[in-house]
Structures are given as C-alpha cells and as structure tokens.
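Lecture notes, structural biology module. Today: joint structure prediction for complexes of three components.
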Amino acid sequence: MSKLRIFLGSDFVYRFKKDKVAVVSFSIVILLVLSAVFAPAIAPYDPYDLKSIDIMDSELPPSWNEEEGDDRFFLGTDPQGRDMLSTILYGMRISLLIGFFAVILQLFIGVSIGLISGYVGGRVDAFFMRLADIQLSLSTLMVAIIALAVFQASFGSELYSELAIFMLILVIGIAEWPQYARTVRASVLAEKHKEYVDAARVIGMSQKRIMLRHILPNTLSPVLVISTIQVANAIISEAALSFLGLGMPVNKPSLGSLISSGFEFIFSGSWWITVIPSLVLIALILSINLLGDWLRDALNPKLYKD
Amino acid sequence: MALLEVNKLEVQFPLGRKTLQAIHGISFALEEGERLGIVGESGAGKSVAAFSILNLLSKPGRISAGEVVFEGQVISEFSRAQMRHIRGNRISMIFQDPMMTLNPVLTIGTQMSECLKTHRNISNSEAREISISKLRDVMIPSPENRMDSYPHELSGGMRQRVVIAIALLSDPSIIIADEPTTALDVTIQAEIMALMLELCKNNNVGLVLITHDLAVVSQVTERIIVMYAGRIVEEGLTHDVITNPKHPYTRGLIKALPQENLPGTRLNQIRGSMPALDAIPAGCSFNPRCDFADGECHKDVPALVGSETHRAACVHIDRIPAFQNAGDAK
Amino acid sequence: MILVSKTPLVEIENIEMRFGGGGGFLSSAQPVVKALNGVSININKGDAFCLVGESGCGKSTLARTVIGLNPPSAGQIKYNGQRIDGLKTKERQPFTKKMQMIFQNPYASLNPRMTVYQTLEEPLRIHHPNMNRTEIRAKVEDVMLSVGNDPTWGERYPHEFSGGQRQRISIARALMLDPEFIVADEPISALDVSIQAQVLNVMMDAQKDRDLTYLFITHDLSVVEHFGSRVAVMYLGTVCELADTNDLFATPRHPYTQALLSAIPKIDGSGVGHVKMTGEVPTAMDLPSGCVFHPRCPYANDRCRKEVPVLQDNGDTKTACFAVEEGRM
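The predicted structure, tokenised, for the full assembly:
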C-alpha cells in the first residue's frame, strides 16, 4: 500500500498528470485494451458464431444512416453479415494479442542475446551483432512474407488458418529481436564498467548472478520504452501481413484482415467496412506511440534533471 | 563605486511543482584589479552565483530578485545582444572543464582569432599576432606551432592554459574562474594557479575565483566569501578569515583539513551534510550541524556582523572561543 | 626504526600491466598502454599503505590488480604467502572474504536499483549461505552502526543519500565479511571537505577496531601524511619512492616526490613556492626511455635517459633515481 502511495506521489506521476498528450493517449490505450479484453462481454454479437450470422444483413451501413441503417448494427455490417462493432472488438483482441506476445518473444530473445553479447564481449559479441546486422538488413515484412508464404504453401491453407495466430507471433517475434539486443547491449556496455559491478565482483559474485541481478535490472528502462513502440510496430506488421492475405483468415479477422476484406467494397460505396477498423487501428497505434515517446522523455535521466 | 556589484541577488530554479531557491540574497562587490575567492562545498550555490553574474544560468534557473551592476550598468537586465558585448569581452569566464570553452574540431589559432574578431575589427594577421602573444603570456612553449594544434593534441594543463589565453584575449577587466584547477593534477594545479595570480597582478585584472579548496583560495585571493546553502556566512580579507575564522562553519572547514590535525588522530569533523535545496532549515541554515546552536539560531536568518574587513553571519559570534590554528595544535 | 622482521600480508612482485594491442576476430588492434612496469611492494599487517601519484600513474590499476579485478600481464601477487593472481572466482572465494574494496565514486559504486539492505546482505548470502534472516539482519545493523549509519536506512535506495552517506554505506559493504585487508581507491576524493573528514574518521576507527590493513590510493599528499604509515610514490607505472610516511615527508629524496610535496597548496598562504618541472607529462602509451621521469626532471643526465633505475635503499627511504644514488642532487 505504502509503495503505491509513494508511486502516486512521485515526480513520475506528477509529470504524467501535467502532460495532456500523455494522459489522453494513456486513456485511449487503456480504453481500447479493456474493450478488447472484455470483447465477449461487451460485443452485441459473437462474430465467430456462424449461426447468429444472417447473410441477408450483409453490407448494411452504420445505424446513423437513416435510409438503410439498421438499429441492430451500430457500425453496420460486413459483406458476410457480421456486426462491424463486434467484429472490430474481436479483431482488436487478436491484433493486441499478436502484438503483445510477439513483443514478449522479441523481448526474451533480444534481451538474452543483448545481455550475453554485452557482458561476454569479444567473439560472442561480434557474432551476435553481425547476426543482428544481417537480420536488420532484411525487412521484417520481407522475412515474414517469405516465411508465411512457404508455410502456407507447404501445409495448405486449412492448417494455416488454424495456426495463423501462432505463426504471426513467431515470425514477427523472431524478425525484430535485434532492436532489443542492440539496446540492451548498449546499456550493458555502459553499466558493466560502473563501480557497482566491480563491487559485486569483489565480493565474489558469479558472472551469471552479476549479469542477472545487477546489470539486467539497470538496463530495463530503455527496454520498457522500446517495448511500447514495438507493440505498435508488431500490430502494424500483423495488419500489413493480413492486408496482403498472409495474416489472420477471414473467419477470425484481425483489424488488418478486416481492413483488407473491406477494401474491395470501398468503391461500391460500403466505405465503413474499411474505414472504421482503419480509424481504430490508427487511434491505437498513435496513442501507443505517443505514450512511448512520453515514456522515453520521462525516463531519460538527463532530461529528467533539467 | 566598485567595478562589479552584486546586490541582494536571488536565484530560483522552478522544477515541476516546486521552486528551488539556490541563492538567498547575496551581496558583494569587486574593485578594479581585486582578487576575490568564493568558497563553499557542493550545493553552497557558489557556481550558481558566478554564473548569474554573466546571466549564464542553465534553464530553468533565473534571477528572481536583486541586480548585478558592472561599471555602473545593471547588466542583469541586459538583453542577449547587450550581454554579448560584456561576455568574453569585458568579463571572461574560465570553466572547470577546458572543453566547455574549446571547440574540439577547430584549431587553437582559429578559435582565438574568431574570438578576437567578434569583438574587434581587425585583420587576420593582427589577430594571429595577438593570439600568439597571449599564448606566450600563459607560458605555452612554441606558441606559433601550437596555433595549428587541435585541443585533443594538448594535455589537460595545456588546454587550461589555452583557455586562460582566450579569456585574456580582449583584455577583460574581470575574469570569473569556476574551479579552474579542480580537474588537474597537483603539480599542474600549482603551475596554473601561479600563472593566474601573476597575470591578474600584471594586467590589473579582477578575479572571481570559485573553488572548494581553501588552500588554493588562500594563496591567490585578497578577499574571500564563504558560502553555505545559498547564503554568505563569512567574508573578509583572506588572511583574516583563514587565520581567524569566526563562523562555526568556516572553522569546521579549516579544522577538518588533514594538515590542521596531528597525524594519525581523528580529524575534527563537521557532523551531517549540506542540506538539500528543498530542505534548508529555518533560521541559520547551519544550525543542525553547529556545536554552538541553540533556540536563537532557529529563529531568524542571521545578518553579517563585524567590520568591513571581516564579518560573519552568526548570532553567537561573541560566545565562540578564540580560534586555535594548526600551529598551536602541533 | 623497528627491526622486527615481519612477514608481509600482501606481496606484490614485479607486476606488469598492459592494455590494448592484439585485435582479433572482426575487431581492430589498439595502441598498447603500459600501465604498470614492474611494480614490487610489500604491505605488512596493520599498515595503512598509501599509493600516491597523479592521474595516469597506474595507482588505480595496481589497486584493481591486487583485488583481482584485472589479472596482471606479468608478475605475482601473494596474500599470506599464497599466490592469488589469476585465480577463478570460485578458487578466489576464501580470499575474497578477507580482501575487500572501497571505490572512488559513491554515486556509481552502489547499485541504484537495490535497497541499502539488499546491497549489504549480498556478501553474507554469498559467503555464509547458512546464516538465517535474523542473523543477517543483526550483522547488517551491527556494521551499519559501526560506520555511523542509521540502521533504519535499510529500506531506502542509494539516490536518497548524500555522497558521504553513500560512501559510508560502501564502507559498510566492504566490512560485512569482516575482512583483514581493504583496498580503498580514492575513497574521499569525490567528497566535500567537511565530508572527507567524516569518511576518513570512519576508516581510521574501523582500522583501530578491526585491526585492518589498508591499501589506500590517493592523489592528496596531505591525506597521506595524516592517514598513512607507509607510502609509495608512483609515476607513469613505476614506483619512484617507497618509505615510511614520516620519513618521506621529513626527507623526500626523489626529485618527483620533492616536486609533488612542494606543490601541495598550504592553507596559511605561504606563497606559491613550488618546484617547477619542465616539459610535458608523457602518457603511458608513449613511455620515455630510461627513467620515465627524466623529461621533467631538473637533475636528468645521459644515464637517466638510457638506463632504468630500480628501487634502492637510501637510508630511511627507497628511491629509484640515479641522481640520488650518485649524490648529484
């Protein structure tokens, strides 16, 4: 309890409260994440339940369109007759899930490699960093497209649609580890020459314990900052892959595949199928990035002192 | 009228929800050619005081009250453009780190001529000649060759000499030196201090020397100011203050020096530490660390009492026993 | 002088230390820095042995080598007669208990993410895994009190303390394992004058109470005079004078020691009468031939430029100087 009170009274919270952009973007992120988490409770329909879908309801405009709108569907319906609001909530759930777990995977791989690379140094370091250079010279999308296309071709689209969510997490997770590895390595290099690390060696602590107990905790603030940005990036990557038809299948759409599926109807006047999920995606990504920017400034000790 | 006067200066740093006051109304004056030392430990506000003379406070610091008067002009209210005629021209500054002044990608010669040409309308060859003569003044060997060196090619001591030469370029009437030798080795420190003393004497330049080192200040300056927690606690002629300090803080500082104690014995220490800017005690800010403090010390901020040549801000000045210096102890 | 032959606690024999050079897989070679060139020192039990010299003289490198942070390029270090250089962390364990270190920068030597208590209990958890919580707590409180710290500081983080308080926490950490020998690398040079006295007092009290031996690194000769029992003056990776403190201050023999002593600013303002040295300070990357001090030495001759002097007995002190040997000064 007292720790919470100390946190709420800290300069960090004070600075947060004074920054309107941070407060607004934080509220939007929390709102979207909560509505995604509680989608089954909030959504008026279950888009995965085929029985509740009536093809006769397809392509209905949002309910504020007085001529054609239907009061049952606040944001209209998609070409298969699913309620847009429910589909977006469920889609956001999938997008966030992929973004979140992909980042956890990146974090795990990247932080481990960065820590070892920075602490051990020498050849190990040179090897991992060249590997990171190679990884970075291939864009995430390129790697993902190749991996997913090969997978889809070799296992068939049926198995693919079942495993799509895991594949996306795996591919996006593996493709972006160098971001973390480089950041962590740089902080490890800065930290390992500080005297508290020498002090730990002088009291006879093992290398492993120094790495995990002393150095790792001191490299985590930049990791926290890039994690917010990386969640946004992973969601964008997933959306892009889905838009290209390599992401989530139509029966379990993410925000990206929703945008993609509505795209062909945009010229027939059914703009809402593409535009509304796009707006949600933009709001989500923008808020996460703004929050990340603020966090970077707030955790930067140099700026903090001024 | 004195060359430089600082009157009831206050400096504040608004930081988030609180405003920290670094300087609580200090006043002092510097006569032409006078050498003044400002002594204090970190957090005493000595550097802030020096920086505010030239309006060089880092953001968000600002002068919240008081004024700085130089040659009869209130320079604390000068615009940036007006200030540029004073800074580096009439009043020069030497920092602890020579690289604050020197640009790492320009040669010494280029930097010196540029400095000269911003304040004076002279030709390149004239500028070069003046620069070389100034380098010779600060005893840099073969100054003609050094003109084409980059700062990183010089040792720390040489760099600080170059900085002093740059400070002297426009024949200023005051040099403000902020811990100019703290980063240097003892043998180099001694050389640089001797050099500064000589240059100031020969050219009749006023010196404001900011340092934490009582020994350095006692060798170079004529008058010193001792600061504690943003206030002046003692000021006077250097010899008087060093040999007969009146304020308990100044006494504590001197008695804490190893050379003032018998070898192998416990040192006379001042208990506690300098208060943080947001936790300065009421009344005399030294009262929690003082052996002589009583109820009276918690009431008001004591005023400086004593003669023009030596005064201290302590209400118990008469009660404190006579100072015994090292000579007596040994 | 006492003529009892003592077995030295720490023997430093012909230590050499080189950094850089090499270059290997995907990395380039760096210039070789000769930080230590054949340093030999014996530290007796109960000594407050001071290493003094200016920046770049190798005094901190020697301290780090003795405590095992940098393995020496050549030479031996013995503790109680046993070789300890080049041991692995595990093999070193019995010696780490007895040898501890205090660092220069009180702001960097404590892990900012660990509470004071966590920092202090760590040595006990490593070396005394059998101690239970109450024993550990009692020990931490005991040591905190002995260095003049409030034991209730335990739950707070280092940034909440001033430099002097942190340095006392750092001393407490070094004392947790009841060591015999402490290496202190400029422990007071980052502190304010009034705080320096506090920390020095804590160190002297600890020496008295615990029968400690110190290797004290400093650039401040007035601290040496007050604190040290023996002193080695270093210049560019070599020891140029080695003596009991009283003798060194009474009769400094090496020209560098003389210059160093004369450069100490005196508070009584007794003039700026220091011995002037000529020339630039060379760096450890580009050592002069012969005696390393010769480019700045007023007494240097041809022999000094060619031959390297070794430490030799000269009455009370040992000096490495031909001018002293030949009586040229």
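Point to remember: Chain A has 14 helices and no strands.
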